Structures are given as C-alpha cells and as structure tokens.
Amino acid sequence: MRKKQFKAESKKLLDMMINSIYTHKEIFLRELISNASDAMDKLYYHSLQENLALNRSDLTIHITPDKESRTLTIEDNGIGMTADELENNLGTIAKSGSLDFKNNSEDKEDVDIIGQFGVGFYSAFMVSDKIEVVSKAFGSDEANKWTSSGAEGYTIESCEKDTNGTIITLYIKEDTEDDDYSQYLEEYRIREIVTKYSDYIRYPITMDCSHSKLKEGTEDEYETVTETATLNSMVPLWKKNKNEVTADEYSEFYRNKFYDYEEPAKVIHTKMEGQATYTTLLFIPRHAPFDYYTKNYEKGLQLYSNGVLIMDKCADLLPDYFSFVKGLVDSEDLSLNISREMLQHDAQLKLIARSLEKKIHSELVKLMKDSRETYEKFYEAFGTQLKFGVYNTYGAKADVLSDLIMFHSSNERKLTTLKEYVSRMKEGQDTIYYACGESIDKIDMLPQTEAVKEKGYEILYFTENVDEFAIKIMNEYDGKKFANICTDSIELDTQEEKDALKEKNDSDKDMLDSMKDAIGDTITSVRFTNKLKNHPVCLTSEGEISLEMEKVLNQNPNEDQKVKANIVLEINSNHPIAAKLEELYDSDKDKLCEYAKILYAQARLIEGLSVENPTELSNMICGLMV
Ligand code: ADP
Q: Which has the closest alpha carbon to 310: 202, 232, 235, 206?
C-alpha cells in the first residue's frame, strides 16, 4: 500500500491544525457531526429523488468514547464515500482562499477560521495523533479505510463494512502541560459540546451513557447501567421562539452554517401566517465573502419543508440586489419532493419571495436608523450591489433602494443618505449636486468643487463607476433633480452675474472661437465661466454623456465604438488669465493659440485625462519660460 501525499495547500492547513494553539479545540466535534448530518441529508434527499423506501428516523449519529484505547468514534449511516471520494474529499482542500485568508487576517485571535471554510474535517487533527475513516458509499458493495497520522500523508485500503455510512475514529492525543485532551473521552464533556454546538442537528446524536441506578429489588444497592441517550434536542433553531434564542446562539448558528468568521450585522427571525405559512431566519453579513463580486458567487436561501432541507440555494427567493442575504425559509406548505423547475412556478414561493423582499428592506432601514455604525460597515461591503440594483432594474426598484443607498458628501465627509442630503438643502435649492472622481481627495481637488462649496451647497462624492449611472436612471429623488457640478447645467449664479457673463461671452465670441479652432475638434467650444473660484480652467461637458461616463464606458476593451462626451473648455472669467487672453487677442494671435492649447492641456490633466500631445505641450511651456 502506497502512502499518498496531501496536496500542498492541505499540508499547510494540516500543519496549522496539528500545531494549533487554537483555544476552541472542542469545535472539531461540531465539524464532524455537521459532516455526518450533511451526509444523511444527502442520503435522504437522494432517496426522495429516487423514490427509495428510506425511513428518516433510522438516520442517526452515534458517538463512542473509549478511555482504554483513547479513541473517540463518530459513526453515521449517511451517504458514505467511495475510495475516490475519500481521496478527493479528505486529501485536498477544495475551497481555496481559506489559507490566504488566515495569512492576511489581522485579528487572528478573534477570528474563528477553523471550520468556517470547509476545513472542518482537518480540525480533528487538533486533538488526534491519528485518524481512521472507514466508509461505504450508499449503493456500493465496497468499503474503504482512509488512515492518516498527519503531515506525512495518508493511505486508502479496502476493508469490511456491512452498511452504508462512515465511521471516523480519532486516536486522541496524550495530555500535555497546557492541554487536557482526555476531556474529549469524558461522557459529560461530550454531552456538553454537543448541546453547545449541535443541539439543532435534526438527526439524533446518540451515545451509550452509563449511570448508576438502584438495583431492582434492593433499597441501597446501586449498579452501573448503560443506556443509549440522545444528546441533542433536534429542534431547529428557527423553530424555537425568538425569546428562547440568545444572540450568541444565532451568531454561532450563522457562523457555523454560512461559513463566516464574524457575527452577522443583523438577524431577522419571523414566523409568518396567512396566505403562506412559513418561518424565516435571515442574516445580513457584515462583510462580503471573498467571491461576492465574482461570477462564482451563488445567491439563494436554504429551503426547508417542515424542518427538512429540500434545496440548498433557492435563488428565486432573493432579488439580485439583496443577494448578500444568507439564511433559510421553512414552510409547511411546500412538498418534499418538489423539483427545481416546479419551484420556479410555485405561487407560494413567489408570495414568500415578495414578502421577504419587503421584510429585508424594512429591516435594513431599521438597522440604519438604530445602529448607524453597523449599517455603514454593511454598506461598505454591499453598497455597490444596492446601487447596481437601481441600475439593473432600470430604476424600477429605485423606490425600494433609494432609502438604502449612501454617498460620501462634502458635509463632514461622512456617508450620507439622499434623504439626509435633502433635509439639509439650502432654502431655494432644488438640485442635488454631485461630482465624480477616483477618490474623495481627487474630487476635492476639482476646480468646480470649490465654488459650489463656497456658495454653501453640499456635494455628493461619486467614487464608484456605478454611482452616476444609478442616479441617472433614478432621474430624481423626492422631486429633486441631480446635477453633476462638472457639467454645464448647474445654476449657481444670480441673474446679474448671469447677465454679465453672457455679455462677456458674447463680446469675446470671436476670440473664444479662435481658441476653439486652435485646440481642434476634440472640444465643442470654449467659454468663460463664473463657477471657478481660484482655478483658471476646467473641462465640462454638454449633453447626456459626462466626462466620467465617457471614461467608464470606454474602459470596455470590446467596444470598438468609443463613446464621446461633448467637451467644453471653461475659463474663469474672474481670473487674471481672462484679461491676458483678451490682451493677446489684440496683440499676438499666435500666442493666443498656444495659450489656448496649454490651458486645454491643464484642464485635461486636472480631470485625470491624458494630454493628447505631451511633446508639443512641453515645447510650448519651454517657449514661454526662455
Ligand atoms: P466541508 O464539510 O466543509 O465540505 P470537510 O473537510 O469537513 O469540508 O469535508 C470534506 C468533504 O468530505 C465533505 O464535503 C464531504 O463530501 C466529505 N465528508 C466528510 N465527512 C463525511 C461523512 N461523515 N460522510 C460522507 N462524506 C463526508
């Protein structure tokens, strides 16, 4: 028999487990029990699909501690594993990312990584020198034994086993000065761990427990009897009353079941009665899973029919914009062997989905109101998804989502909601101002920002690509239009100021036109503006496509057809450069052309755009210097 090596990543993880200084070593039992329970779920599900006569009540997990041989055995009669499955499931860690996570995590102490990323089985090496897994797959007539003493590798050989299922034998480590491993062979301790972590497992977890009993026919003689006891209550957490469940229990359940190392930002536990009767237990995570913004992420809630899992990820229960929600729905109204296709058309399910959407929305609004800090943390993780929601539904869901979205703002530079923005609007203000840029600092540096702030208006900072697209689709909020302060549609001036500006633009029209001609067709026009305070120039755009949208849309390498904004070069009418240009128009038209090009290049740089002809620019500047 050849000894096989673990895959590299698995080996690292094993080392971590074996040399673990982890304080909650007891969780290894939770991991093994949860694997056993999954294996029985799989078998039961399979039997429903295939119409096999299987009695759910025959499925059990049995634990046997043996102090003499220092072994702890966990046995299940679930689906079992073939030799290949033993090899693939226990020789590799399928879910990558877990180790990277461990290495990058700053807060190692508080993070319960072990067991949260599909490393469950390996956690048994925290307490064992050697592990044997004897397994027989359902429907197969061969059984196999997987054995490993840790990092050196593992062996798989065929063996005898009558029935389907898996028996895991842990050879418990000897006690050390720091660690009491013998506790895992004590009945009371096993019972304690099972009730702590696995009480809601819906299969009986049994153990032969011995206790002393009055001997029959005697009055003071005791004898030790052994009886099989069920250690868990089997009532699923969500079936309990809310007031019977502690915050810790919800958190433990969530972390264990949905592989998170942090507690949830919000727990939603409700029983609904009416057109549809169901219980739902939902969790809003605090941070995005590592694959959340990738194609690999699958949304969905677990679907139970009266306590029995019928689908692991029912996508139809969650709209895309709430795809971050984890949890389950348990309904008595659903039939056990309903297929995926049938579910899609199930009216009951549609009803549930609609009411869940409302519930999630109202709970998020509540979270924002009651614990702003937690909401903001949640929003940092999932805000982008909510904004995509506005965009992808063509604004149809703007009503639901506009209450939930936030932006950074010039007011205290904190996240603010649209509602808060509107409540702070100046008298007479009928527009919500925003500016786009890579970062808050970059937006602050935009020449236009200064003048708008100067006039006492708050600006929303759009730093994500989706931001402007989302609000363009919303069109307005609470009757207020949105305006990009870098486009020409904002009106901050008094009538007098406007008239004066118009006059200046009219009287200098020839000069401005010749500047535009010098710059060329990349821009639509050149004009004076009042919207700059200290800066000499800026770029704005006219029409539907803003400069920021042009940048985003043209990032797509597959699009041959590049989108173009109508660009306008604006010159600060109150800046000394304005008078200088007028002077040059009279005295030196060639120089005016050069100035026009230099000003345009400056404005492009400020916008974060590249200069079209850097050599020419450099020569022109040198020409002015010498
Ligand atoms: P996870 O349970 O998160 O997938 P584990 O390392 O705990 O990760 O287990 C790896 C895989 O081994 C499981 O996904 C399952 O396919 C298989 N497995 C583990 N324990 C059992 C068991 N008792 N019965 C059947 N399959 C099991």
A: 202
